[in-house]
Design a protein that fits this description.
The complex is a heterodimer of chains A (257) and B (320).
Chain A: H1 3-23, H2 25-28, H3 30-46, H4 48-51, H5 59-89, H6 93-97, H7 103-129, H8 140-164, H9 170-184, H10 197-203, H11 207-220, H12 227-250
Helix pairs in contact in A: 1-7, 3-5, 3-7, 5-7, 5-8, 5-9, 5-11, 7-8, 8-11, 8-12, 11-12
Chain B: E1 6-14, E2 20-29, E3 34-38, H1 45-52, E4 60-65, E5 68-69, H2 70-79, E6 81-84, H3 96-106, H4 111-124, H5 140-152, E7 158-162, H6 170-185, E8 189-193, H7 197-203, E9 206-211, E10 214-220, H8 221-226, E11 230-237, E12 251-256, E13 259-265, H9 270-279, E14 284-289, H10 293-308
Parallel strand pairs in B: 3-8, 3-9, 6-7, 7-8
Antiparallel strand pairs in B: 1-2, 1-4, 4-5, 9-10, 11-13, 11-14, 12-13
Helix pairs in contact in B: 3-4, 3-5, 7-10
The chains are: A mainly alpha (257), B alpha/beta (320).
């Protein structure tokens, strides 16, 4: 394929993915906004007012970046995992396999499509948060960079999960048993400085802590960890995960007999 | 000399469970041919076509499409291939038109080129009125035609049809045959697998029979049928009969009161049989083959191959 044909193929796949989640928006875009509204009401307004400031920041403001990031992570991951697995399940993945489209385009198409849903949901949650607090972004480029990189990283993760999955249960195991606990323990609702030294150390091996804090730094200007290192770590993870996903596709893992 | 549309050499496939699906098959399909690949269930037809279309990873051997080795440049070879698989393999919740246009996009076709092409194909295949509807609302026959439209969107030179008319009613099957004949006349090479041997006999010029991962026959349909020694005809009588008429040189069996089965060996003339029927006062109102000729040949060939290889004779599934 020449560069123009490759671009058409990539655009086709991305628009197909966007069309898919827009078609079923009551399942894909609406629930996160309702869930996050509940978080803002309960943890922000009702409980948050009694907790007091966190790192000298009103509690509701403190949790906004973490909640946005939580929505971005779960939606990016689950979009690609469920979409690609559905393609496998319905065998429509064969439409792509018989075409001359390179494997990196297939991977990139799903990842960009999934990331776009994560970012769309993140935007919706951000708009919802404005009904509860006034947001002012301290470092716009860090904020945008971190949220896009995080959405891409978890989209790739969802793709790899879908490749190895044999049944629908297999694509819900990671979100339920890995992503959700790591997100909750990743400093969404608290600063790790509140934890005893041992648990602070344990928290430092949680990759989501770095994403949440880097995003919080972008919006609020405060972070528990060095932001530069977090950005580099996310970028490295993206490269490694993309390479693993591509290697699996090239080998036909989970899709070729 | 023109490169064959498909050239397969020593193709082997061993699945993870140790099953040898293909045992080193060689096959050539000439450009412009209408070629049938026949065989009982599990013989290796779909595995062969799966390797050619990249859905199955081969264990050994080589495959070339119009001279392009798939190990060297599969992407280039894929431009020449259109694939209609046995199972429905599209997103049932997508619109009919979107399925075809998306496939065009996967081949890097610009929308301004893809849209008129999709319209032409959907009209030709009787799906234009359904283009805005969800694919799951289509009947089984329409879904098969949708897969044909999708496979042809990028103008492939080689079309692979894996049981394209399975489950399609007779009228629709005939119209699909006409469509396939037309695109073959227009230059598209077609490889067809089917259980309807009448389909292979009507459409195809050349034929290969695969059994237990080996090619047991690879010849023209005409030569294959010439090997058939005996044909059996069913004769419908105007009046019921109680006893079987005796014809000199012919074997006749009574099927029921108004139907006889007449066996005619190669070299015998039907006129001789009819003359004897007339002389004995039997009035015949209609006649047809008891079974498809190719079907008889196919069954005997597969059973012969099984017997030679010492396998139990499998039940050979054919539909006509």
């Amino acid at each position: 394929m020449n560069a123009w044909q490759t671009w058409i193929a990539l655009w086709t796949l991305v628009t197909k993915e966007v069309r898919r989640y827009m078609r079923i928006w009551p399942q894909t875009l609406l629930p996160p906004s309702i869930t996050m509204t509940m978080y803002f009401i309960i943890f922000g307004n009702l409980i948050g007012s009694r907790i007091g400031p966190m790192d000298d920041i009103p509690y509701i403001d403190y949790i906004v970046p973490g909640l946005i990031m939580m929505a971005v992570i779960t939606n990016s991951y689950s979009n690609v995992a469920s979409s690609f697995f559905s393609n496998k399940f319905q065998r429509s993945v064969e439409e792509m396999m018989v075409s001359p489209m390179p494997n990196w385009v297939i991977l990139a198409g799903f990842v960009v499509g999934g990331a776009s849903r994560g970012l769309a949901v993140g935007l919706i949650v951000t708009v919802v948060s404005m009904f509860f607090t006034d947001l002012s972004i301290h470092h716009p480029w860090v904020t945008i960079g971190v949220v896009i990189m995080t959405a891409l990283l978890f989209s790739i993760g969802g793709f790899i999960n879908a490749l190895v999955a044999h049944k629908f249960d297999d694509i819900s195991i990671v979100p339920i048993f890995v992503l959700t606990p790591l997100t909750y323990l990743g400093g969404v609702f608290y600063s790790i400085h509140m934890l005893p030294a041992f648990w602070q150390g344990v928290s430092m091996v949680n990759p989501i802590l770095y994403m949440v804090n880097a995003f919080r730094y972008g919006i609020l200007g405060v972070s528990d960890i060095p932001v530069g290192g977090a950005l580099v770590a996310i970028a490295v993870f993206i490269v490694v995960f993309f390479a693993v996903g591509l290697w699996m596709l090239d080998r036909g893992k989970g899709i070729r007999s | 000399m023109a490169e064959p549309a498909l050239s397969i050499r020593g193709l082997t496939k061993v699945y993870g469970n140790g099953f040898h699906a293909l045992k080193g098959i060689d096959l050539d399909v000439a450009e412009g041919d209408f070629f049938a690949l026949l065989g009982p269930n599990g013989a290796g037809k779909s595995t062969t076509l799966g390797v050619v279309s990249s859905l199955v990873q081969k264990t050994g051997g080589s495959v070339s499409v119009f001279g392009i080795d798939i190990d060297r440049d599969f992407a280039k070879a894929k431009y020449h291939l259109g694939v209609v698989p046995q199972e429905f393999n599209f997103n049932q919740f997508e619109k009919v038109e979107d399925i075809v246009l998306t496939q065009a996009g996967y081949y890097g076709m610009p929308m301004r080129e893809a849209k008129p092409r999709a319209e032409q194909l959907l009209r030709d295949l009787g799906l234009w009125d359904k283009r805005k509807g969800s694919a799951r609302m289509l009947s089984g026959g329409m879904k098969r035609r949708l897969m044909i439209a999708r496979a042809l969107i990028h103008r492939p030179r080689l079309l692979i049809l894996d049981e394209p008319t399975a489950g399609v009613d007779i009228e629709l099957r005939r119209s699909m045959w006409e469509f396939m004949k037309r695109i073959n006349r227009e230059g598209t090479t077609i490889i067809l697998t089917t259980h309807y041997l009448e389909e292979a006999e009507s459409l195809c010029r050349n034929i290969a029979i695969i059994n237990h991962g080996d090619i047991v026959q690879n010849t023209s349909v005409r030569d294959l049928l010439a090997q058939l020694n005996t044909e059996t005809f069913l004769l419908d009588l105007a009046q019921p009969v109680e006893t079987v008429p005796e014809l000199e040189g012919f074997n006749v069996e009574r099927v029921d009161a108004t139907q006889l089965a007449l066996s005619v060996e190669r070299g015998q003339r039907l006129n001789d049989a009819f003359a004897q029927f007339s002389a004995q006062g039997f009035e015949i109102v209609s006649m047809r083959n008891r079974a498809n000729r190719l079907e008889e040949m196919f069954v005997s060939m597969v059973e012969h191959a099984n017997a030679e290889s010492g396998r139990s004779t499998d039940k050979v599934e054919v539909r006509s």
